[in-house]
Amino acid sequence: MHELPVIESILRTVLRHAVANQVSKIVTITLHIGELSDLEDEWVQRYFDFLSKDTLAAGATLKIERIPIVLKCNQCSRTFEVRRDELGKLGCPGCGDSSDFSLISGREYYIKEMEVL
Amino acid sequence: MGEIKLIEVKEGILSENDAIAQQLREKLKNDCTFVINLMSSPGAGKTSLLLRTIPRLKDKFKIGVIEADIDSIVDAEKIRETGVGVIQLRTGGFCHLDATMVKSGLEAIGSSNFDLIFIENVGNLVCPAEFDTGATRNVMLLSVPEGDDKPLKYPLMFTVSDVLIISKVDYLGSSDFDLSLLKERVFKLKPGIKIFEVSSKTGEGIDQWVSWLEEEVSILKSTSVKELNVTAMMAVREMVGWSQKKLNFSGNTLAQLIREITTIDGQSLYSVLIDEEGAVKKDYMVWLNNRPVKEQHSLEIPLQNGDRVLLTSMIKFSAGG
Prior knowledge:
Chain A is of the alpha+beta class. In chain A, 25% of the residues lie in helices and 32% in strands. Chain A contains two helices and six strands. Helices cover 34% and strands 22% of the residues of chain B. With 321 residues, chain B is α/β, with parallel strands linked by helices. The longest helix of chain B is centred in the first third of the chain and has 17 residues, at 15-31. Chain B contains twelve helices and 13 strands. The A-B interface holds A 1-2, 5-6, 9-10, 12-14, 17-18, 21, 23-24, 27, 29, 31, 36-38, 69, 71, 74, 84-85, 87-88, 90, 98-103, 107, 109-117 and B 1-17, 94-96, 98, 126-127, 130, 149, 151-152, 155-156, 159, 184-185, 187-191.
């Protein structure tokens, strides 16, 4: 829904790093997006291609790595991965407790790295 | 063909927004303005809740509302009728508010003049969750008719909320909404989230919500930095080494102020001026805004920005005599 401003932000950031590193072309950009966030992969690439025309990032491929939701049970200290459609399943797979969890990962929303020439 | 190099970027995609939000948060804290970012799906009851909440608090706090919900011309009118300051943000049908928009809204309303500001975010459970607005608290509404599986469908929104208000609880009897299941699901995503159950229609639960809000805003107000004009005369002047000072005081009471002021040799003025019962010693005088203060309970009065304090003795201090 708001992919455009998000892509603009990504483009600004990678171009800043490209200029600082005297890069001639950006080949790939790797994003880490947690499973709790929404980002439509196909549209992200299309918007990016459109906005990056005539820049150092033109033609770059966006690689989106989805970071899984990992919860930690504060009762038994066990960490476990949960799929988004499994969020309804209550209870730690280790001790069965369903009252005390911490979110370890799943909210990531950052640019990890880029491959450049 | 050149060699491909790897450059580590490691920057948040929304880092610009986050930076603006953080700055905003600092400013609001310094201004002692409590801002609530109110989020929900359309029709969950944000406006109705405000119409119930504002009358309860508007005599205590200066309240403002920033309307951003797309259909909110009608809402803004209803809110305006309660007598508080309202402005309407033109979002152009955008799906959420970000820190830049909120910043301009706060500037437009003159936020530093307000104690409490409600931002009615765009009715949407997806996008607003991604954007830090710089608000003091994120409050989301979930109405009973929407169902208890919303945490499964929109987990991020619950993860970023400090408070969850379950609205339209007057529907509980006639629906299969499982309140305890909903709470378990929510606590999994945001342990420690504060939950209120309300009905704007019947008034149920509004008291608890309003009490909580009142306390939170009062706590913020009591931490404000106040600029005070302090005058020291006679023996006190000789002890502290100055006769007039503009002090930025972040404490609360006169007693605390006296504790903070030190003599030239590093001693707190408190033991000099105040006795064991907490009252002003008989050889000294403390004046607040041209009124003498003597008793312990009077020293516990909270100070306000611009207050004038006079600290003086009755006897002139004479060295070597």
